[in-house]
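Entry 14. Ran structure prediction on the chain below.
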Amino acid sequence: MADQMEPHGTLDYAEIAALGLHPDELVVFSSNVNPYGPPPAVVKGVVEALTPAIVARYPDRLSGALRARLAAHHGVPAEAILVGNGTADILWLIGLCYARGRRVALLTPTFSEYEHVARLMDAQVIRVCHPGWTTAPDGSYHPGETTVQDTGRALAAARPDLVFVCNPNNPTGHWLTLDEMEMLAAAAPEALWVVDEAYVEFMAQPKSSVAWIQQGRWRGRWLVLRSMTKDFALGGLRLGYVVGEPALIASLQAAQPPWNVNAVAQLAGILCMDQMAWRDETLARLRADRDVFCQELRAAGFAPLPTTVNYFLTPVSAPTALRRALLARRLVVRDATSFGLTGYIRLATQRPEHNRLLVQALKEVAPSLRTADSRPSAANSRRAG
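Output, structure tokens:
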């Protein structure tokens, strides 16, 4: 059983308060949220609708209006969608319904909440190396030569009942193609597959596993998680959903606490459905910002790993100490040690002026933390997958 809160990239408010800081003072590179959001039209619409009545009235427990809009967007029946209080909320529902006492496989390194949920459900957790990565004797992860076929063989040997896959993966930014996903699925054909696509819209050409559900393929064995928190920057409201076979969705709905998606979040989600052009424009701008950010980091002597999304890993010396030093400058980065990635930080691209601020700070702070063997190795400079 897990006995402590899992570390994440969101702000630690107790830590910030202890340092005498306020969240508004910080530039947060540790949270993978669209820095250009939320959409102004959504904020305006929420403010105008925030009446005493909407505050006092219980929300629709089925999120019916938002569910219908999402279903139309994805081309699936409304019964194939469940809306939740962020995707983390839905992960807990999946754990409650499908993980208790089961064999649960994770493609690692990856988001820690999958393992946290599985262990709380007394599941047997099996870590399987994500393609492009390998494990060291101490259990840490490093870029390696693991292939999709290698990962498939490991899954076949594990015989899992449930598989969690983050795609694109957090924290590596690597994306498995739909063909690769189908190859892996063939290795564990009896398992329920949970594909977390929280970051898929940050890709230049998003390709979602929902397409397979639309076509009736992988029927009954797939749940696809989607987040509106990241691309629309609704972190303070919390909003996510899952797409899957209606029978699976019905089981999750039965386990979901009533009214757990508040009325303001539901309204914001509905308004976001009319802001797809805003999303596409800002995320295209963010991809360009990321490319410049990585170029500036390389010019400063760092070696960010390639990625398909807005965040990426960067090898550094003493990441924990570096995080503390940057926090003193009101810059927050993610120490990737908790992912099992020793010697890395994860950076989420921010607006250009903030990216330049971090590059300058790294140039000033990192040299004092370097040891004789701290230069990024050739292996660390390879593509992460």
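Residues 371-385 have pLDDT under 50 and may be disordered. Will compare against last week's run tomorrow.
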